[in-house]
Design brief:
Blueprint: E1 5-8, E2 11-14, E3 18-19, H1 25-37, E4 42-44, H2 52-62, E5 70-75, H3 77-80, H4 85-96, E6 101-106, H5 114-126, E7 130-136, H6 140-150, E8 156-160, H7 168-177, E9 180-184, H8 192-195, H9 198-207, H10 211-221, E10 225-226, H11 233-240, H12 249-256, H13 258-261
Parallel strand pairs: 3-4, 4-5, 5-6, 6-7, 7-8, 8-9, 9-10
Antiparallel strand pairs: 1-2
Helix pairs in contact: 1-2, 2-4, 5-6
């Protein structure tokens, strides 16, 4: 099964990545292997998740070529207030057992040092420790702050986007500035008010597809990257089976309108 990619700065990232938050160690080997075989090249992690070392050991066990995977991880608020940015990057490098990190994010703008931290991360990029820099959970003003102090916008902004939460202004701003958008929580945590919404139930019957497939296809047709968590191979296969159908324009307009995005 082919997986389409999108350019994030200098890096080609699969439109569906593998979210690892809460993914158990026992599930990683099987899911990673199947994901890579299906063309998923992006593995999303974070220092705060506590799984960088597990990801490294899984890749080592599988004999994965480092250049075949795109690894994303994140600077945690705890690190921002307790250590230097350089030490934080080095800690993730050690945990991941790699010489470089493909995508390195500031996990949130919670710390009031995010502008300073961004400038220090640019130095780490110049050293080759990270290839591209991104942010997570940043709004428009916070991205402008980064641009004002550094002269550049992030390559990517990872924010919650799903059928129940669609931050339209942030998405449009990112598109205008050439910032890739990646949806965290793309399935809206499978909330029942989304899964059982009348519009969604109608479309599930119409297209003979599951809620995850329609939700992810909707994101794909809106040109948004996504990182659903997939804890089993059956979930993986369901979530990536979105390339052999298309949501019709009138139905996309319904999903992009007030019905689902304001649940």
């Amino acid at each position: 099964m082919s997986m389409l990619n999108k350019q994030v700065g200098s890096i080609s990232v699969s439109c569906i990545g593998l979210g690892t938050y809460g993914l158990q160690r026992k599930d990683m080997h099987n899911v990673f292997s199947e994901a890579l075989d299906c063309g998923i090249n992006y593995i999303d992690s974070a220092y705060r998740y506590g799984n960088e070392g597990i990801i490294a050991s899984s890749f080592k066990y599988m004999g994965v070529n480092r250049h075949d995977v795109v690894i994303g991880t994140k600077l945690a608020y705890k690190q921002q207030i307790s250590m230097s940015v350089e030490d934080a990057v080095d800690e993730s490098l050690r945990n991941l057992q790699t010489d470089y990190i493909d995508l390195y994010f500031i996990h949130s703008p919670k710390s009031d040092t995010y502008c300073e931290d961004w400038c220090r991360l640019m130095l780490e990029k110049q050293k080759g420790k990270v290839l591209e820099l991104g942010v997570s959970n940043f709004n428009i003003e916070q991205m402008k702050d980064i641009r004002n102090v550094s002269g550049c916008y992030p390559a990517i902004n990872q924010i919650e986007i799903n059928l129940g939460f669609y931050p339209r202004k942030i998405i449009e701003f990112c598109e205008e500035k050439g910032i890739a958008v990646q949806a965290s929580c793309p399935l809206g945590r499978m909330r029942q008010e989304l899964v059982n919404h009348e519009t969604m139930r109608t479309m599930m019957n119409k297209y003979h597809r599951s809620y995850p497939q329609l939700a992810l296809r909707w994101l794909y047709q809106n040109e948004i990257l996504m990182i659903p968590k997939m804890s089993s191979n059956s979930h993986l296969m369901e979530n990536i089976s979105i390339f052999d159908f298309e949501i019709k324009r009138e139905d996309m307009e319904k999903l992009n309108g007030e019905v689902m995005s304001n649940v």
